[in-house]
Amino acid sequence: TAERAIADGQAALGRQDYTAAATAAREVLQGRPGPRAQDANLLLGEALLGERQFQNAALAFNDAYNVNRRSSRAPEALLGLANSFQGFGARREACDTLAQLRSDFPRLSPALAQRVEYSRRRAQCR
Question: Which of 8, 34, 59, 76 counts the most CB atoms within 10 A of its CB?
Fold first, then answer.
């Protein structure tokens, strides 16, 4: 099932087995992902970031965001997109994405807000 594949992919991600995580995500996306499409795209983006495939990661995070721009996982997708932009040197786009994240989602969990702030400092956003 999609749930099992995503759980396996998350476990692989935790072990830094990025290839297995990406494979699990793609398995879900190639099937009938339904409501798990956003989760699968986020998993794929994280796996591709781990493999330093920043442009492909950006595409996966963008797809995750576009699946449902108002979901509870949408801020994670924008953060991943910003981190992907940073990875391939698109600092302005990273900062613009982080600004959008803060504008669209002003009430982030403390843990996610901390990750966003770290990303802003790393990208040297104003």
Answer: 76
